[in-house]
Protein backbone atom coordinates (compact mmCIF):
# COMPACT_ATOMS: atom_id res chain seq x y z
CA UNK A 1 0.00 0.00 0.00
CA UNK A 2 1.37 3.42 -1.02
CA UNK A 3 0.59 6.90 0.24
CA UNK A 4 -0.13 9.11 -2.76
CA UNK A 5 -0.17 12.93 -2.69
CA UNK A 6 -2.38 14.31 -5.49
CA UNK A 7 -2.14 18.03 -6.28
CA UNK A 8 -5.21 19.45 -7.99
CA UNK A 9 -7.23 16.37 -7.10
CA UNK A 10 -10.48 18.29 -6.51
CA UNK A 11 -10.85 19.40 -10.13
CA UNK A 12 -12.77 17.44 -12.75
CA UNK A 13 -9.80 15.48 -14.10
CA UNK A 14 -8.06 15.19 -10.72
CA UNK A 15 -11.17 13.84 -8.98
CA UNK A 16 -11.65 11.29 -11.76
CA UNK A 17 -8.04 10.20 -11.21
CA UNK A 18 -8.64 9.93 -7.44
CA UNK A 19 -11.78 7.82 -8.05
CA UNK A 20 -9.71 5.52 -10.26
CA UNK A 21 -7.08 5.14 -7.52
CA UNK A 22 -9.77 4.32 -4.97
CA UNK A 23 -11.36 1.71 -7.24
CA UNK A 24 -8.11 0.13 -8.45
CA UNK A 25 -5.97 0.07 -5.30
CA UNK A 26 -5.88 0.12 -1.53
CA UNK A 27 -3.57 3.16 -1.47
CA UNK A 28 -4.02 6.07 0.92
CA UNK A 29 -4.63 9.30 -0.97
CA UNK A 30 -4.17 12.91 0.09
CA UNK A 31 -5.81 15.44 -2.22
CA UNK A 32 -4.05 18.83 -1.98
CA UNK A 33 -6.06 21.55 -3.69
CA UNK A 34 -6.59 25.30 -3.32
CA UNK A 35 -10.25 24.90 -4.37
CA UNK A 36 -9.95 27.69 -6.92
CA UNK A 37 -10.75 27.62 -10.63
CA UNK A 38 -12.03 24.04 -11.17
CA UNK A 39 -11.34 22.54 -7.73
CA UNK A 40 -14.52 21.82 -5.78
CA UNK A 41 -15.28 19.74 -2.70
CA UNK A 42 -18.36 18.39 -4.47
CA UNK A 43 -16.11 16.64 -7.01
CA UNK A 44 -14.88 14.43 -4.16
CA UNK A 45 -18.32 13.61 -2.70
CA UNK A 46 -18.39 10.04 -1.43
CA UNK A 47 -14.59 9.72 -1.45
CA UNK A 48 -13.30 11.69 1.52
CA UNK A 49 -13.45 9.53 4.62
CA UNK A 50 -10.59 10.99 6.66
CA UNK A 51 -8.68 7.71 6.64
CA UNK A 52 -8.03 6.42 3.14
CA UNK A 53 -8.85 9.64 1.26
CA UNK A 54 -8.44 13.07 2.78
CA UNK A 55 -8.56 16.62 1.48
CA UNK A 56 -6.02 19.25 2.48
CA UNK A 57 -6.93 22.74 1.28
CA UNK A 58 -3.80 24.63 0.34
CA UNK A 59 -1.89 26.28 -2.47
CA UNK A 60 1.17 24.53 -3.90
CA UNK A 61 2.83 27.95 -4.10
CA UNK A 62 2.92 27.93 -0.27
CA UNK A 63 6.16 26.12 0.55
CA UNK A 64 5.33 25.46 4.20
CA UNK A 65 1.86 24.12 3.42
CA UNK A 66 3.28 21.71 0.83
CA UNK A 67 6.12 20.62 3.11
CA UNK A 68 3.82 19.75 6.01
CA UNK A 69 1.15 18.07 3.85
CA UNK A 70 3.54 16.01 1.71
CA UNK A 71 5.53 14.49 4.57
CA UNK A 72 5.26 10.71 4.73
CA UNK A 73 3.97 10.16 1.20
CA UNK A 74 5.50 7.72 -1.26
CA UNK A 75 4.34 9.22 -4.57
CA UNK A 76 3.22 12.57 -5.97
CA UNK A 77 0.71 12.94 -8.82
CA UNK A 78 0.17 16.34 -10.41
CA UNK A 79 -3.35 16.91 -11.67
CA UNK A 80 -3.93 20.63 -11.20
CA UNK A 81 -3.67 23.17 -13.99
CA UNK A 82 -4.40 26.84 -14.35
CA UNK A 83 -5.80 28.09 -17.64
CA UNK A 84 -3.14 29.02 -20.16
CA UNK A 85 -2.98 31.81 -22.67
CA UNK A 86 -2.67 30.65 -26.30
CA UNK A 87 0.84 30.97 -27.74
CA UNK A 88 -0.55 32.67 -30.84
CA UNK A 89 -1.36 35.76 -28.80
CA UNK A 90 2.26 36.94 -29.04
CA UNK A 91 4.75 38.41 -26.54
CA UNK A 92 3.56 40.08 -23.34
CA UNK A 93 4.35 40.52 -19.66
CA UNK A 94 4.35 37.50 -17.37
CA UNK A 95 1.03 37.38 -15.55
CA UNK A 96 0.67 36.57 -11.85
CA UNK A 97 -0.92 33.14 -12.40
CA UNK A 98 1.97 32.15 -14.67
CA UNK A 99 4.49 33.15 -12.03
CA UNK A 100 2.57 31.12 -9.42
CA UNK A 101 2.55 28.11 -11.77
CA UNK A 102 6.32 28.35 -12.11
CA UNK A 103 6.75 28.68 -8.33
CA UNK A 104 4.61 25.57 -7.82
CA UNK A 105 6.75 23.53 -10.19
CA UNK A 106 9.91 24.64 -8.41
CA UNK A 107 8.51 23.74 -4.97
CA UNK A 108 7.30 20.31 -6.08
CA UNK A 109 10.73 19.64 -7.53
CA UNK A 110 12.42 20.82 -4.33
CA UNK A 111 10.32 18.45 -2.22
CA UNK A 112 11.16 15.56 -4.51
CA UNK A 113 14.90 16.30 -4.59
CA UNK A 114 15.08 16.64 -0.80
CA UNK A 115 13.78 13.12 -0.54
CA UNK A 116 10.51 14.14 1.10
CA UNK A 117 8.85 12.06 -1.62
CA UNK A 118 10.84 9.36 -3.41
CA UNK A 119 8.93 9.39 -6.71
CA UNK A 120 6.64 11.49 -8.88
CA UNK A 121 3.87 10.30 -11.12
CA UNK A 122 3.48 12.28 -14.33
CA UNK A 123 0.49 12.90 -16.54
Overall description:
The structure is a single chain. The protein is of the alpha/beta class. Helices cover 32% and strands 19% of the residues. It is built from 3 helices and 5 strands, in the order βαββαβαβ. The chain has helices at 12-24, 63-70, 96-113, and strands at 3-7, 28-33, 53-57, 75-78, 119-121. The chain has a 5-stranded parallel β-sheet with strand order 3-2-1-4-5, with helices on both faces.
Which keywords apply here?
123 residues, alpha/beta, five-stranded parallel β-sheet, 3 helices, globular
Record the SSE blueprint.
Elements: E1 3-7, H1 12-24, E2 28-33, E3 53-57, H2 63-70, E4 75-78, H3 96-113, E5 119-121
Parallel strand pairs: 1-2, 1-4, 2-3, 4-5
Give a short synopsis of this structure:
With 123 residues, the protein is of the alpha/beta class. Helix content is 32%, strand content 19%.
Number of strands: 5
Strand order of the largest sheet: 3-2-1-4-5
Poorly predicted sequence stretches spanning 5 or more consecutive residues = 85-92
Percent helix: 25-40%
Quick one: biggest sheet? 5 strands, parallel
Kindly state the mean pLDDT as a whole number? 78
Tally of helical runs: 3
Q: Which class of secondary structure composition applies to the elements?
A: alpha/beta
Topology pattern, helix = H, strand = E: EHEEHEHE
Rg estimate, integer Å: 15 Å
